[in-house]
Amino acid sequence: MTLPIDPYERRPVPGPPSPVVRPPMGWWRRHRVLRNWLGGVASAVVVSVISGVALAYLTPGGDTPGGGTPTSAAADDLPFSVDVLYRGNFCDPYVVNAAPGELSSPHRVVDPDSRVRPADDEVAEWMQRVDAVPSEGLLLLTVQGTGDKTVVLQDLTVEVVEPKGPPIEAATLFYPDAGCGAGESPRLFRVGLDAANPRPVPEAGVDLAGNAIPAVAFPFSVSASDPEIFTITAEPGRCDCSWRLRLRWTSAGRSDTLVIDDHGRPFRTAAVVDTNARKFIAHSYKGCPGAILWCEEG
Asked: What pLDDT is stored for residue 235 in this prediction?
């Protein structure tokens, strides 16, 4: 039941509302800008971690048998080492965009009286220094294990970079170490770069001592105490060819493919048209008059 209101009853007059007392704001809530920035960073970290996990499953790695990504010859996690030396074949000329009087000697130390032809590494360094292109390539590979596990070299293939160029019409050809000779490598291969499907083909040979070198095909095995030395002769045919090798290997459950190239770029071997070319031979072959480093072949 509702009681009647007494009109004469004294009631308190409503005053202004009392202020609402809030608890003090913490340091974290006062710094809204910093809070938003840290929240964005945390979100980015979470996204990066999730993306990394996904890529770890989707990208084939070196430990995935049969699905490895080709790696560089300088890779640190390989169970073997590869020493690469690329030079021109003996007896065959090089094309260099330089005048004979301006071209440096293939020898590190120039001795006008010496008749010793430059070493392989001297010729390779000279090629890099003057950007010489050999008319027939000679690639020397030394493969050796670096751990206690045996490494099986399954296969060696050639990739010719397209497009192939025509033979170089050379006005001048240079012979840094004229004079032919057989190598001492026990594993000899030859590849025709201008073929429809170029592939290293094993071939027999004779070493410097006159011993027969049998033709042996892949696979090979290497270890720390049992290296292999390969010599690959690259014939350009009728092309100016850029190319690289791919070495497929397995070891202790791992499988991958190693890309072998010329300091990060393809090897280059070019056929030459030398109908009217002038030919120059390094001074160490038979001597040049005065201090001339290259003398023209008569």
From this structure: 97
